[in-house]
UniProtKB/TrEMBL annotation:
PANTHER family found in the cross-reference section: HTH-TYPE TRANSCRIPTIONAL REGULATOR RUTR, POSSIBLE TRANSCRIPTIONAL REGULATORY PROTEIN (PROBABLY TETR-FAMILY)
DNA-binding region residue numbers: 40-59
Keyword terms, alphabetized: DNA-binding
InterPro entries reported for this sequence: Homeodomain-like_sf, HTH-type_TetR-like_transc_reg, HTH_TetR
Gene Ontology molecular function: any one: transcription cis-regulatory region binding
Sequence ranges assigned to domain HTH tetR-type in this UniProt record: 17-77
Pfam families the UniProt entry points to: TetR_N
Protein name (record): TetR family transcriptional regulator
Amino acid sequence: MATADKPKRRAKRVDGELSRTRILDAATEIAAERGYEGTSIGAVSAKCGLPASSIYWHFADKDDLIAAVIERSFNNWMAVWQLPEDLVAVDRLMDVATGTAKALMESPDFLRLGLMLALERRPVEPRARAMFVKVREEAFDAMSRSLDRLGIGLTEGQVRELATYAIAGADGLFIAKEIGGDAVDLLSLFTLHGQALYATAMRMVEENAR
């Protein structure tokens, strides 16, 4: 009997994972169009074809759902920083820059939703905003490690300054793309951003040697 129950449990788990993915896909699409305030459990239910009860089985409320959307998009985005250790400094930075551009074009929801939430001020902070702040800290740590691994002689303070500048620049380029649409070549701009980061890093190293 126990053996016969295993395939049923596996099937139920797979069905649960597929349902969760359908819900997240629907929530992502709706949130991208309407933002945090315009997203509702009812709209997500209509979009994914699953009853609201199924959504509440996976997620406590809308805020929990949007937090999961941000986290999933961020995990896709972060994959660009898993680079081979044998890359030379300039190639590592350029790969991070162009990889980030491609990830933002393919999975922009993390930044689009997160920036909207980050700029809002509420008496009670939504969990989705807290999730965005958390994953931004992870992005900062990952960027700092990438810069430190360049091995060109940056101080700890310089690494933190460059990481802050790199992420702030990425925010600005993404917003420029959101405003300018197809007129903005995000890949070209991130390539320029990577070159500027490398030039700034080398200038810092030269200043350290003086």
